[in-house]
Structure formats: C-alpha cells, structure tokens
Amino acid sequence: MASEGVLYLVATPIGNLEDITYRAVRVLNEVDLIAAEDTRTSGVLLSHYDIHTSVTSYHEFNKLEKAEYLVGRMLGGERVACITDAGSPGISDPGEELAAMCIEAGIPVYTVPGPAACITAITSSGLSCRRFSFEAFLPKDKKEHERVLEEIEKDTRTIIIYESPHHLKKTLEELSGRLGGGRRIVLCRELTKKYEEKQRMTLEEAAAFYRDNEPRGEYVLVIEGRSKEEVREEKQRSFQELTIEEHMKLYTDKGLSEKEAMKALARDLGTSKREIYRRLKIDG
Fold it and tell me: Residue 60 and residue 63: Cα distance in Å, rounded?
C-alpha cells in the first residue's frame, strides 16, 4: 500500500542562513522532492545544510502546470516540500495555488513556520503591531493600483508594502501625496543580514531623501495607519454638513428604529438623546 502523499510549505531564511528551524532542515531531508522557486538560490541553502533531496523548479511562470505535476506525485504517495527564495511560501511568493490544489485533491498540507519579511519588519519598526494590513507589492494594473491606494488612505491599521529599488522613489512620492507627508514610515532593507538598515522618518522626509539618493536592494515599507482622531474629525465635519433630519434619515434608512437612530445621532454629535429629541421637535 502506497504511503500518503503530503505537502509541506517550508519557510526559509530571508537573509541570514542561520534563521532556519531544526524541523525545516529535517523535513527538507526527509521529503521525496523539493519544489523551489529558484533552484540555484535554494541550492546555496541546501548545500549549507548538507541536504541532498531532489529539487525541481516551481515559480511564478510555471506555478499552475507544475502544481498539477506535483499534485500527481503526491497522489502517488510522495512527500513534497515547497520553498521560495526567501521567507514563507504563499506570502508574496509561489505556494498559494499549490496549497489550494492539494486541499481540493484531499492531500494534507502542513506549514513548517519560520521567517517572513513582513513580520520581521513590523515587529522591529516601533509602529503598532496589534492590527496591520499586508499589501505586498502594489498592483501594476492602474485601476487596481488606484483601488488599493484608496483603501490604504482610509486604513487605520499599520500598512506593510514590499517595493523594489526601481520603483521606490515613485512609490514614496505617491504615498506622501496620498497619505500626507507627516505620516510615519520605517524603510527596512537587508533584514537579518550584516548591513541591516531601518530608516525611521516621515513620508515627506523619505520622499525627499530618495530624490537625492539611489535606493539599494529590496525594501519593506512599514507605514503608520491613519489616526482614529483624524477619522473622527472627518466624520464630525461630514455630519456638520447635514441637517439633523438628514442625519436621522441616514440611520432610519438602514432599518434602525427612531429610538435607535436618535441614540446613534447623539453619539455622532457628542450630545444627549434628550438634546436630539429637543432639536428634532424644534426643527419639526
């Protein structure tokens, strides 16, 4: 009887080769096949840990057809490990589609956790880690790019973006203009390596700095979310443009009872329900 096939999503170091777990090394030694984003890049890691498992390429440009091949091998009872050039498979790297296809085929999928550049960056940024939004690389398609920027503008969570050196200047100018130059940002590069660098400044300062300096290497941008105070103030301004009847109608149109709507109205305007009742009666 054939053994049960399985997929392991194995996280690998994002820079420092020492950032790999004992379990990851064991799994990579024990599986029948390693699917690697770049066999040459992964070869350095595998050689360093004396891992001699067979390796095949699995990358952005062959991820669908190769996934079918890998699923076939796992259905035949083989154990496969998926690794990327650096970090966790599926996080802005190949792996998501393969995992989905395995689950659909009834093949067990396990993650062998480890490094991820986005987590490494935010935890050492000094910005809030409680709630964050990971956007990876901003979309190239203009409509999708604009939609994501609109969402980022309103987001009160800390925002994480990956960016290449070729597009960093344009991205910083764009973010400074859209989010406001005073928003704090931490620019991380060479994470976990000897020359790891974190630049802590405002978006305006970052845009100005890179007008005169050339970016080097891949960046992880950790950006402060929109302040809740700013959101409240904007809401208050929008409420002031409405008559009290229009404001009331916003809530009753959503299905709230008159009593519930008055309570919500009082909360919005920072006053009592009695005052709202009085004003409605007067205006009526």
Answer: 5
